[in-house]
Structures are given as structure tokens and as C-alpha cells.
Amino acid sequence: MTAEILSFETGRPAEVHDGEPSLVVDVEGYEGPLDLLLTLARQQKVDLAKISILALADQYLIFIEAARKIRLELAADYLVMAAWLAFLKSRLLLPEPATPDGPSAEEMATALANRLRRLEAIREAANRLMNRPQLRRDIFPRGNPEQIAEIRHPRFTATLFDLLTAYAAQRQQRVLANVHLVKRTVWSLSEARASLERLIGIAEEWSCLDDYLLSYVVDPSQKATVFASSFAAALELVREGEMELNQKEAFAPLYFRKRPPQASGAMPAPGLSVE
Amino acid sequence: MASLAEKRMDDAEDRPVEAGTEVAARPEELRLLEALLFASDEPIDQAALAKRMPDGVDIKAALAQLQAEYAPRGVNLVRVANKWTFRTAGDLSWLMTRESTETRRLSRAAIEVLAIIAYHQPVTRAEIEEIRGVITSKGTLDVLLETGWIRPRGRRKTPGRPLTFGTTEAFLSQFSLEALGDLPGLEELRGTGLLDSRLPSAFSVPTPSDDTTLRDDEDPLDDGDTLELLLAPAAEPEGGGGG
Amino acid sequence: MASLAEKRMDDAEDRPVEAGTEVAARPEELRLLEALLFASDEPIDQAALAKRMPDGVDIKAALAQLQAEYAPRGVNLVRVANKWTFRTAGDLSWLMTRESTETRRLSRAAIEVLAIIAYHQPVTRAEIEEIRGVITSKGTLDVLLETGWIRPRGRRKTPGRPLTFGTTEAFLSQFSLEALGDLPGLEELRGTGLLDSRLPSAFSVPTPSDDTTLRDDEDPLDDGDTLELLLAPAAEPEGGGGG
């Protein structure tokens, strides 16, 4: 009996290792109970449509028995199928009940036969598919394809808003920057005073303010602002008694000197005395 | 002939100037077409070819003529996935084997699953398992996805929203199929009714289709779907744990 | 081996059965050669071909014949560095290019320069830099010239004869302006809030004009002026080296 079961090993279509010993009930090699059933069915060498499900069930049950005898671990799937086939077998052997509920034993047998046919059909299809000429196995594409060069033409985008924003922002920025520079060229009163204070620290004798200023201020464009601030600062210093100013006539050069400690009015000024 | 050609070879680095007389009258569009198709290792569809060709050329007729011209040659013009490409002739595979990089050897299980997906698509893992009567291991689907021949298409509108699988254009290209309708034995399978009796009537799919538009009973894949997640057994409760 | 291949061919429906009669007598070695050369990922020399081909084939003669056959075709068999390969016919190289347009946004610097050219034209690079307070890179002007929105108008009659730039008709059409005078002036810019209303009274925005007739202080471009020369920094000493 065992020998008979194992004889279909050789009939298996694929993936049975050739070197395996012949007297092994090899459940491992089957892709589940349906695969096993299909292999058993092939042994009947008849059209699956006409297969004896009864005989098939017997063969399956014998196979499972043999496997259990040699204590093979059987997946639950195989045992479930065995139980179901045993049930089907008993149904097939017994007369049909008068009022059948659910499918008849014949219908169940046909359904099983159909499942086997379907599996066999898809296997046949798979075989034919794999036997088609396959890419890079039988037929080959161009091995050294030529690249299609892409010539890109840029299309630039910009909106009028972008343009105007950019223009306004730049112009504005520059104008603000100019205002800043102008500020720096203006001599503030405090700047002028600080400069004058430095100057009068030197000038014990009457000195010409213009000369000092001109030598001090390099940039001629700053002349006006320097003079204005310096004059204002000078008046302030005179008022505070820090210095004396002298001018011969309107628009004449201004003379100044550090005020001597006790010389209030002691030394006559060359011209108009400011006090 | 040989001596003439030899002379040409000697002085012409690029190509001889004058043409063989028998093809002198060959239409220019055939030259353009063969240049375009030869240059690419990817199949090109007719519309793309037409875009590159001068106006007024009957592309279809020119392709047919080119195909006939190349039919007896070592390189054939074939149509795969409804696109055109040059491939070496099938009968020369014995010559080309050395060209072949290690070809993928699919397991028997993987081949079966691939065939079921091809012939029954769109199909869920549970449906594949029903046909095979056995759990599909994640590894089997992984291997098939890695080939690029199958892809998850969407999710079936049934409880658990199982993934549906289908084949790709690379599948057609791999097996030199113009379309799924050219699957070998498809007619016989349809004739036996084995393709459509399997599924509940609501999902009756008489012909496989790799049309990218989803069926009525399919939902698109979710944004978060990644292959890792897709293949996790949990996504298909009816699939059970991988055997 | 051959029978297997034949069987495969039988179920491959994509190959027309009939062959052109005029090539029926074509030697088999030409088929083999063309398949090998087609599938190879690099040019092959004669010795390597001979190794792959059946014994007794006159490879040199066969190559010569194949070369002659393909000479009038869109694909030629060429010899490169003593190795053989198929290549697109030289006169069809135009087929191997594809033109495409890509949309690019102008850089901020380019827009700024463009705006100044638009309002202050004809304007030299040095003047642009004076207004912007930064050096204008050659790349920025290159891009603007590429847009076709600006053009060199002439050369300013000052030492160094710097180029003057102006806008083009394409500029008007890009910004949907009927004429350059439609560019908003000071009051309009203030009105839209783009310009601060507290700007000093001396602040002015020029009334732009793209009149093509040269100004009194402009010379026409020299005959030898090409864009390459025009943009070379040396042409405008006051521009300084591009920052």
C-alpha cells in the first residue's frame, strides 16, 4: 500500500528533489491538501471531470494514515481535509436523506472535482506562461540603447507685480541710504562743540576760526554745515565764558581764543566783542 | 558582394555612402521608425511614435511593413503591452543565453500565484488561497512584487478591505504579450467556465483585466499604504498568518 | 534546443508568419550576428563575435554584408575603435533629441536688474550698479538676455564706451504692457503703497521709454559685438569683477 502511495512521487511535475529516498511520505513537498489531492487524482489517469471522488477520498485517507503512522507532523489543513473527505465518503455511500438540507453529497463531490480542475487548469496555464519566450532569458531588448537627448527650453516667468515691487524696494532702499549719508555729513551742534573745545584747548592767542575749520574739515561740500554748527557752538562757548570771539566787520573772518582766567575785558579785542 | 563590402569597410569608418539597390525605394518613414525603435530599449506606443514622425505618415501601415521586413531577421519588431519594440528573435535564445544575466528562478508557488493573478485579476490574496487551497506566504508575494510583474491595485469593497492584485506592463513585456487577452490558454479556460465560477456572482470577472481603472468593487489604495503594510497578514484577516 | 525554441515561437502570437521573399535566402549567420550585436550592451570586436558564432562562419564577410544591408537604413552597423555596434544613422541624429520647455522663475537679482533697465533705459551696467548698490553678476545679465526681455541697445559715449541696455517687445508682451509708458510712475507707485509716501521731494521715478532710436549720448553697437563680448567684464571697466 505504501509503495503504491509513493509511486506517484515520480509523477510530480516539479520541485521534487531527485535525490530524495523513495520510501518517504513527503508531505513537505505538497503545496497543501488540494495539491496532494490533485496529485492523487492524476494517478487515476482519467479526466478530472469523470474522476471517482470516492476512490480519491480513499487514497487521501490512506496517505494521511500512513503519514500519521510514521508520526509525520501534518499541518492542520491536511487533517481538516481528511475529516471532510471521510464525511463526504460516508455521505456518498449512504442513501440520500429524503429532505436534504444543504448541498447533496453529489454536489459536494462535484464542487471538489471542480476545485481540482480549476487548480489543474491554472497550473497548466502557468506552465504555458512560463514557456513563453521570456525577456532577457530567450529574447533580448537593445543592449546598448541610445539616449534621447533632451533639449530644454527655459520659459521664464515673472509678474508685473514682481517687477514693480523690486523696483520700488530698490529705489526706496537707496534713497534711505542717501538720507543716512547726509546725516553723517551734517555737523551736529555737539560735534561742533566737541571740536571747538578741542581747538580752544590749544589756542591761547587769537586764532582764525576759518583756518582751523578749513584744515579740520576736509570735504569742501561740508563747509556750510561745519561753519553753521561751529558758529552756533562758538556762541554757546562764549556765553559760557569758555572762549572769546572777535570779528572786525560783517563777513570778516572770525577770531577766537581761549578765555584767559581773569582777563574779562582786560585785553581789548581787535573788533566787535561778543559777550 | 563581400569584396565590395570589404572595400567599404576599409575606408568608411561610419557607413557606406551608396545604398543597396533592392531597398532604394524604401520609404523614409521606415528609416525614421526603425531608428526610433532601435534606439530605445523600452517599448514605445504608437501615439508617441506618431508625435516624433513627420505629419501625414500612416504609422500603422509603416509599422506593419517594418514588422514584416524584420520578421525573418535576427531582430524582430514585436508588440508588447500595446507598444512596439525590437527584440531578438525567439528562436535564437540558444545563441543569446550568454547574454543573459542570472535569470530569476521563481518557486513553483510563486509561479502559481503569478498565474492566478494574471488570469483572475483583480484578485485578492484570499481568492488566490481559495484556488490553491493553501496559505500564501508573505515571501511569495514579496518575490513577485520584487519582479515588478504584479502590483497592488486597490482594495476590495468587502469587510477587511483586502488588497486586490493585478499584473503590470512589465509582466506583459516579460512574456511578450501584446495584451492580457493573449495569455496562453485563456480562451480554453474561459470555455470551461473555470475562471468565473469561482467567485461569488457579485464579483463575477469573466475576463482578466489589468486596466488601471478600478472595478466597481475596488477602492483606491490608501495614502498610507506601503508595500510593507500591504503585505502584512493583518491587512487581510481572511488570509491568516503566513504558513 | 532548436525544437524548444520552435515550440516557443508557436505560441508567440506577436510574430507574423510570412517573411519577405527577397530575403528568404539570407544566410542564417546574418540573423545571428544582428541578434548578437543588437543585444550586446557594448560594441563587440570581431574576435568576441567569432567566439559566439557557429564554427566555419566567415565573420568578416558576414559583418561586411550586414553593414551593407543596414547602410541605407535608419540604423547602421558601424565600427567604433575596431568594435562593432548598431547606431542611429548620422543623418537622423535630430530624431534622437527631444525638445521640452521648462518654466523657470527669475531670480530676485534678475528681476531687480530688469526693473531698473525698464525704468532707466538706456542704462549701463555701471548705472544699474549705482542704483542697486551692488555689483551685477554676469550670470544675471545672461539670464535676462536669455529671456529676450532686454537687449543691448548701443554704447554710451563715455570713456570705456559701456553698453546701454533697454527692454524689448517681448518684455512688453510678457508683462502685458501696451507701451513702456504704461509702467506706473511715482504717484501710481505711491498710490499702490509700493513706495513710501514720505520719500524726499527730490525723489523721482523716470518716465521710461524704449524708443529704439539711439540717444545723443549713445553710439550704435559695433559690428563685432557679440553677446559673448558684450558681457565680458572687461568691456565695462567700471563694472568691476562680478562679485
Describe the structure.
- The complex is a heterotrimer, with one copy of chain A (275 residues) and two copies of chain B (243 residues).
- In chain A, 51% of the residues lie in helices and 8% in strands.
- Chain A is of the alpha+beta class and 275 residues long.
- A four-stranded antiparallel beta sheet of chain A has the order 2-4-3-5.
- In chain A, strand 3 and strand 4 (254-258) form a beta hairpin.
- In chain A, helix 2 packs across helix 3.
- Chain A starts with a helix and ends with a strand.
- The model of chain A is unreliable at 1-24, 179-183 and 263-275 (pLDDT under 50).
- Chain B has 243 residues and is an alpha+beta fold.
- Chain B contains eleven helices and seven strands.
- In chain B, helix 2 (28-39) crosses helix 4 and helix 6 (108-120) packs across helix 8 (138-147).
- The model of chain B is unreliable at 1-23, 197-205 and 233-243 (pLDDT under 50).
- Chain A binds chain B through residues 14-15, 31-35, 75, 77, 114-115, 117-119, 121-126, 128-130, 132-143, 145-146, 148, and chain B through 38-42, 85-90, 93, 96, 99-101, 103, 106-109, 111-112, 114-116, 118-119, 131-135, 173-177, 183-186, 188-189, 192, 194, 197-198, 243.
- Strand 1 of chain A pairs parallel with strand 4 (97-105) of chain C, so a sheet runs across the interface.
Task: List the SSEs and their pairings.
The complex is a heterotrimer, with one copy of chain A (275 residues) and two copies of chain B (243 residues).
Chain A: H1 2-7, H2 33-43, H3 53-69, H4 76-93, H5 105-130, E1 149-157, H6 160-185, H7 189-200, E2 207-208, H8 209-216, H9 223-239, E3 243-247, E4 254-258, E5 272-273
Antiparallel strand pairs in A: 2-4, 3-4, 3-5
Helix pairs in contact in A: 2-3, 2-5, 3-4, 4-5, 7-9
Chain B: H1 2-11, H2 28-39, E1 44-45, H3 46-52, H4 59-70, E2 75-80, E3 83-88, H5 93-96, H6 108-120, E4 123-124, H7 125-132, H8 138-147, E5 150-156, E6 163-167, H9 169-174, H10 186-192, E7 218-219, H11 227-231
Antiparallel strand pairs in B: 1-3, 2-3, 4-6, 5-6, 5-7
